[in-house]
Amino acid sequence: MFAVQYHRYGGSEVLRVEEVEEPHAGPGQVRIAVRATGVTPADWYLRSGMLRSIATVDFPHVPGMDAAGIVDEVGAGVTGTTVGDAVFGLVPFLDQGGAAAQYAVLEAWASKPRSWSFEEAGGAAGNIDSATRVLEALEAADGMTLLIDGAAGGVGTMTAQLARARGLTVIGTASEGNHGFLDQLGVVPVTYGAGLADRLAPLAPRGVDVALDAAGKGSLAELVTIVGDPHRVVTIADFDADRHGVRFSRSEAGQSPGWAGLPLAAELADHGRLTVPLHAVFPLEGSAAAHDLSATGHARGKIVITVP
Hints:
Structural class: alpha/beta
Order of helices and strands: EEEHEEHEEHHEHEHEHEHEEHEHE
Oligomer: single chain
Number of helices: 10
Largest sheet: 7 strands, mixed
Strand content: 15-25%
Number of strands: 15
Shape: globular
């Protein structure tokens, strides 16, 4: 099969479309013919070598953590899924390679919502996993107010919608050009940057209960001050979390607490309560450009790669 892969750490120029061995579904897994896969910051963090101290990859490595497609192999012990089903889910990324390929193995999945295109579904699972992990860690519940720093990106938009489905009020930081976009998602927009606490005061007169840093722009100290307790702040993007007493949430090998969010998200989507805003869609051969766009940090929604 053809896949995008890289043989060494480096910039996006190390990405190549090459012929590689097909993966096969093991016990508890399914294999899909990939229609689309999402691009996340973790993809280019890993590719650049930024994460080599905490997450190593075997070269050559195929990027892509989530995907959507059609099941064409079902592993031993799998029930409720058959060949021909349309699904979306997560790959065993570090163990068996990624999803920027014609075929990929999924270790967690759910039926593709009828209301989502393959492009939308292909970029959804990783963000659902992250958002679910964060909301569980924050013990987010009905009636609380959640502040998301970096609300217009892929994880931000997904966390906001899942939080609203739980009954939370969501306030999100973004540039002024993205305020209308957030408003359409039911998020109260506020401009990011210094002085955030003062701008929040009239928007949350009863205060902010919990906060997510989805931007990694150095806001943790201010977020802790706003909510009053570092335990009520989670980051997915700032590796300086420990210095502030803040929890850093990332995907781990094996069972993730975020996997349970996949079928729930699919159900919400088919009831018109969950969307996957797409910022840009690239062909497989455009993977380098997709990585470069993600690295700018200015994507509004999800960046996706389609697979022929």
